[in-house]
């Protein structure tokens, strides 16, 4: 594609007027067709990042599995295909899944999608009885979840003894490293609870530099302040392990993956699949941040001109730059027998 064509396509994405979820939840991302397409690309990029896996918990012949915040339903249907002996696979989201996914569910009696908020459903839906689930999975709830300790505690109640929970989340900050040291770091979970980071990083070659206080990143500070005002915790990825320990889970394991903002990272790190991750992120090609920003800061009493100024700053910061990355956390825990 010629550069002018790419620029025109990006402009069209940014100029669109996306729709948003019609609910009382603080979810800040669009829900139009372009966002649905982005979610599919995001799914593929994350699967690549995790070495061709969507989930990582060590499951053995699970009977009932649940995908919370299922979105497009890609993970839900994948769980159904991977676990042929399972009797029930539920996908839960605030809005209906796409028609193509719903049609697929119609061909598999084990597969069922439930619309609603998980915390409300746990108190009212007989299919989600305490101690009834072998595996509870969620991915990227950070833009809609307002009570993480309560949510993780509800997972503990939902999972049967010996069952597993897995949460995959961003830490929505930006970092720099002087020299790429690999795309993932294992984290041993120890120390005190309380939702803190906890544990030691094993095999880490260099400490990353957080850019939050840097000049030129005012947009990120506003983005995080607006999110906090809505009750969202954009650092949830690094805190989930602590919340799992507090809830009572054992064998808690956390792994931090670095998501590069430069396309040469794939070659430098010897992991070609990281190109798919960089393609998803560099320049905000689907307008996720661009369209989420005004909705996120709507309570900060900013004028339209200031919002547009920070949007321009944001787009500069989201451009390609060697050594820049965000982090993605995969945390698993088992309910004791």
Automatic annotation (TrEMBL):
Q: Where is the composition biased (Gly residues)?
A: 188-197
Q: Provide the residue span(s) of the region labelled Disordered.
A: 1-28, 186-206
Q: Which UniProt keywords apply?
A: Methyltransferase, Transferase
Record has Secreted as a keyword: no
The record's Gene Ontology biological-process terms are: methylation
One Gene Ontology term of the molecular function aspect: methyltransferase activity
Gene3D superfamilies with a match to the protein in the record: Vaccinia Virus protein VP39
| Keyword NAD attached | no
Q: Would you tell me the protein name for this molecule?
A: S-adenosyl-L-methionine-dependent methyltransferase
Record organism: Viridothelium virens
């Amino acid at each position: 594609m010629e550069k002018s064509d790419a620029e025109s396509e990006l402009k069209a994405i940014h100029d669109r007027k996306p729709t948003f979820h019609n609910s009382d939840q603080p979810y800040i991302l669009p829900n139009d067709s372009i966002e649905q397409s982005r979610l599919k690309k995001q799914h593929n990029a994350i699967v690549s990042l995790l070495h061709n896996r969507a989930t990582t918990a060590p499951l053995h012949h699970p009977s009932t599995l649940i995908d919370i915040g299922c979105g497009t339903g890609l993970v839900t249907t994948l769980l159904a295909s991977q676990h042929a002996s399972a009797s029930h696979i539920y996908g839960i989201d605030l809005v209906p899944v796409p028609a193509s996914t719903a049609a697929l569910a119609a061909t598999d009696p084990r597969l069922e999608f439930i619309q609603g908020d998980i915390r409300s459903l746990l108190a009212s839906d007989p299919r989600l009885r305490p101690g009834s689930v072998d595996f509870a999975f969620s991915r990227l709830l950070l833009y809609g979840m307002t009570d993480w300790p309560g949510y993780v505690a509800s997972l503990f109640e939902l999972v049967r003894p010996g069952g597993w929970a897995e949460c995959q989340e961003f830490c929505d900050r930006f970092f720099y490293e002087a020299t790429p040291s690999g795309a993932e770091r294992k984290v041993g979970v120890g120390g005190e609870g309380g939702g803190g980071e906890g544990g030691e990083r094993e095999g880490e070659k260099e400490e990353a530099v957080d850019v939050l206080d840097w000049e030129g990143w005012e947009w990120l500070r506003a983005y995080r302040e607006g999110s906090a005002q809505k009750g969202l915790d954009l650092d949830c990825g690094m805190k989930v392990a602590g919340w799992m320990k507090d809830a009572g889970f054992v064998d808690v394991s956390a792994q931090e993956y670095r998501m590069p903002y430069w396309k040469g990272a794939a070659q430098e790190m010897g992991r070609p699949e990281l190109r798919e991750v960089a393609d998803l992120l560099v320049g905000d090609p689907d307008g996720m941040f661009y369209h989420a920003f005004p909705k996120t800061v709507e309570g900060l009493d900013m004028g339209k001109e200031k919002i547009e100024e920070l949007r321009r700053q944001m787009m500069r910061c989201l451009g390609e730059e060697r050594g820049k990355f965000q982090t993605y956390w995969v945390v698993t825990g088992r309910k004791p027998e």
